[in-house]
Design goal:
With 473 residues, the chain is of the alpha/beta class. The protein is built from 15 helices and 24 strands. Strands 1, 2, 3, 4, 5, 6 and 19 form a seven-stranded mixed sheet that branches. It is globular, with a radius of gyration of 25 Å. The structure holds flavin-adenine dinucleotide and nicotinamide-adenine-dinucleotide. Flavin-adenine dinucleotide binds next to helix 1, helix 2, helix 3 and helix 9. This is FAD-binding protein. Keywords: Disulfide bond, FAD, Flavoprotein, NAD, NADP, Nucleotide-binding, Oxidoreductase, Redox-active center. It comes from Alkalicaulis satelles.
């Protein structure tokens, strides 16, 4: 096959968040960039992940609000869920964001976009059907896909994934979800609130990346939403067919449903990439990548989910920035140098940034202090009638803020207060120094910070000092 030969500064494989940020950054610095995309521009986040799931959750939370409205004296009745209209709002959200990630926009930035599957043909060469690109640097940003767990009989069933679930034309009557990570919990709550009978099966710890006391709040809410949550039991066997599936658990119990969704983790998309031709090595976890995102071929870098450092869109974007800083600004930057916030957009939302209590103790030992403040003592939360959750601050020597954890309404946005402090290496004092508007949920960080300093500010020394000063006034 004859292909056009191109020389470029940068070749990028995959136009998801990681590949797009990297390509845009390099092109805006005047570098010649070729971007390969075998599927949809925007990758998982736009088409099959963050955007559709948040739009679906919005419909679900609206339904929930209508059901709950009488508590606030608002008499409303939920007549029906128009799933076709729900799907339209999902498509509209994707369509509204799509121009940011589009081929036209990237071509406008000067990127050559090749809508074909790419593979390595040498240490510095990547080829697709129509072009062969020799580049000074190559970025693999090929993402991950849903892992279908190895359960006897499952491969014979129509298993939904985060890609196919958006094509459902009607609400699943009864949905079995394998896995209670962020995907299982967000989609489980969404479908339950829209009217599906949902069962989530989780062999390990649900929402394991979040503080257990915060995760527990979500699990309670899921139960109130009518979700059946089975934990600590592994699915052993799957049987049935389209419209009637059955999962048998290790203890012999069985669960039946009309649909089944795999939300049991991800696997790297490395197939057909020809990594051997480039000397790029993998291990059981995927690509071998250092803290500056270099693979075992130092001219080939990895960004986003495929780098194996976590699966978040903003982390993928950060990887793009790290690569641009290292390659084109000569600013040595490690991908681990920033706290990465994460959130689960269920009700109540969960969020965290920085270290957990356990991680902080492992690194900083006895210097670690943990300070809590509940929304039950936040006037806005009380006025809103939703006092679930609170915040946990994890701090180290000199009150340096090491981690922050939040659960409760708007925790997903509030976490950025703490995240901003941590990004500049700040302390708990930075949270107490701000004057917070009253009544806001954001005050909770100031109150938690205030609690940290309580003994110092109002302790015996401060009392004595106040007494002495009083004597002279
Ligand atoms: C249901 C769901 C909800 C999510 N919600 C959130 C959320 O709320 N917030 C959040 O931060 N993250 C969320 N995520 C995670 C987020 O979607 C991913 O972290 C993000 O999409 C990773 O971006 P990426 O660029 O690494 O990979 P991807 O988005 O997967 O993009 C990789 C691209 O590479 C292309 N590709 C692969 N191989 C080749 C090849 N050989 N040649 C050419 N092209 C190739 C693929 O077609 C794909 O378009 C969610 C994920 C899912 C599944
Ligand atoms: N709000 C967000 O930021 C958001 C939302 C969705 C997804 N994501 C990202 O997408 C990625 C994937 O999410 P996820 O929830 O699929 O993965 P995950 O790895 O976080 O959770 C998967 C869960 O499946 C369980 N599991 C493993 N094997 C199983 C089996 N055989 N049967 C049933 N359960 C099994 C695991 O114990 C785990 O709890 C993550 O990186 C996540 O960060 C982020």
């Amino acid at each position: 096959m004859s292909r056009d030969s191109i020389r470029a500064d940068l070749a990028v494989i995959g136009a998801g968040a990681a590949g797009l940020v990297t390509s845009a950054g390099a092109a805006m610095l005047g570098r010649k960039v070729v971007l390969f995309e075998a599927g949809e521009m925007g990758g998982d986040c736009l088409n099959y992940g963050c955007v559709p799931s948040k739009a679906l959750l919005t419909a679900a939370h609206k339904a929930h609000e209508v059901r709950q409205a009488a508590r606030w004296g608002v008499q409303a009745e939920l007549k029906a869920i128009d799933f076709a209209q729900v799907r339209k709002t999902i498509s509209a959200a994707i369509a509204a964001i799509e121009p940011n990630d589009s081929q036209a926009r990237f071509e406008g930035l000067g990127v050559k976009v090749v809508r074909e599957r790419a593979r390595f043909t040498g240490p510095r060469t990547v080829a697709s059907d129509s072009v062969s690109v020799t580049a000074r640097r190559i970025v693999i940003a090929s993402g991950t896909r849903a892992r279908i767990p190895a359960i006897e009989g499952l491969d014979a069933l129509p298993v939904l994934t985060n890609e196919s679930i958006w094509s459902l034309e009607s609400l699943p009557q009864s949905l079995i979800i394998l896995g209670a990570g962020p995907i299982g919990v967000e989609l489980g709550q969404a479908f339950a609130r829209l009217g599906s009978q949902v069962t989530i099966i989780e062999p390990g710890e649900p929402l394991a990346r979040f503080e257990p006391e915060h995760a527990a709040l979500v699990l309670e809410t899921l139960k109130a939403d009518g979700v059946t949550l089975i934990t600590g039991e592994a699915p052993m066997r799957a049987s049935g067919g389209p419209g009637a599936v059955e999962i048998t658990l290790a203890d012999g119990r069985s669960v039946t449903g009309t649909h089944i969704l795999a939300a049991a983790g991800r696997e790297p998309v490395l197939d057909g990439l020809g990594l051997d031709a480039a000397g790029v090595q993998t291990d059981a976890g995927g690509l071998i990548v250092d803290d500056r995102l270099r693979t075992t071929n130092k001219r080939v870098l990895a960004a986003g989910d495929i780098a194996g450092k976590g699966g978040l869109t903003h982390l993928a974007g950060w990887h793009g920035s790290v690569i641009i800083r290292n390659l084109y600004f000569g600013l040595p930057t490690r991908q681990s140098s920033q706290p990465i916030p994460q959130a689960v957009y269920c009700d109540p939302p969960l969020a965290n940034a920085g270290l957990t209590q356990g991680q902080a103790r492992e690194i900083h030992g006895a210097k670690v202090q943990v300070t809590r403040w509940p929304f039950a003592d936040n006037d806005r939360a009380i006025a809103e009638g939703d006092t679930r959750g609170g915040v946990i601050l994890v701090s180290g020597k000199g009150a340096k803020l090491l981690g922050a954890h939040a659960a409760g309404a708007r925790a997903d946005d509030l976490i950025h207060l703490a995240s901003a402090v941590m990004a500049r290496g700040g302390t708990v004092r930075d949270l107490t120094n701000m004057v917070a508007a009253y009544p806001t949920r954001a005050e909770i960080f100031k109150r938690a910070g205030g609690k940290y300093y309580e003994s110092a500010v109002f302790g015996p020394f401060a009392r004595t000092l106040a007494g002495v000063l009083n004597a002279f006034h």
